Amino acid sequence: MMQARWGSHGDYEIIALCPNSPQECFDLTIQAFNFSEEFRVPVMFMMDEVVGHMTEKVIIPAAEQIEVVPRKHTQKPSHEYLPYETNGDGVPEIAHAGDGYNFHVTGLTHDEHGYPNMTPQTQDKLVRRLQSKITNAADRITLLEEESLDDAEVVVVSYGITSRVAQRAIELARQQGLRVGKLRLITCWPFPEKRIRELAASTKAFVVPELNLGQMVREVERAAAGKAKTYGVPHAGGSVHRSIRWNLFCAPIACRTSGARDAESEPR
Questions:
Q1: What gap in Å lies between CA 19 and CA 147, rounded to an integer?
Q2: Burial letters for 133-146: b for 16+ Cβ neighbours within 10 Å, e otherwise?
Q3: Domains in the chain, ordered, with CATH?
Q4: Which of 17, 65, 88, 143 could staple 61 via S-S, CB 3.0–4.6 A?
Q5: 96-115 pLDDT, tens digit each
Q6: pTM of the entire structure?
Q7: What digits encode the pLDDT tens for the residues 153-185?
Q8: Helix, strand, or coil here: 93?
């Protein structure tokens, strides 16, 4: 998860989506291409091993019902076109290959012509544009699934296959009278900091299960900024979490955050 976000050098923003079913593998692949075309960035598709081996029914709509975001081609004549000039949204228009437009491509810091320029001023302008074109649209890019958050004292933050195990755990916790809600990350990058901050102001704790030894839990803790406690539930792999274990974990968290003191209530 962190390699997807920080796998290259330099400052930049990316988009990463986390499906939890074969249906979402289809739907989010289309969404990934649409995001990529709109923002001119690679979109990471975080399909974990378990989802990748699942067999479920997938509904494929008719082609005319599928939304396809068109590539933003320039309408300027070739002598006026600058390949990295923007019109306020941070995303440059692109030229049709073979239509007489000349542009330079480099991996170095560059100006609006595409020519390498390593001055601090150009570096600052370029890097801030690469970040802001994503961060300014974060509310629209961030896809979340929410459930039972209005009265939640504990919010389970999950993604990928673990979110499906979390669903059962939340249902079991609710049956026991625990006020547990669900926040599923469909978009994991950009991270939904704004929503976590909002929930941290009204909830008492976040529980973050992951099919690793703890990565996104750090992002939740950072965004919560001490307003709510954050507990990780790591799993090294080989299987998924067992739902009953989840239920036993959520209960002590609810007890601790409500002020109850019980030596047997330490989270495992």
A1: 17
A2: bbeebbeebbbeee
A3: 2-68 (no CATH), 77-138 (no CATH), 141-265 (3.40.50.920)
A4: 65
A5: 888 888 878 888 899 999 99
A6: 0.88
A7: 999 999 999 999 999 889 989 998 999 999 999
A8: coil
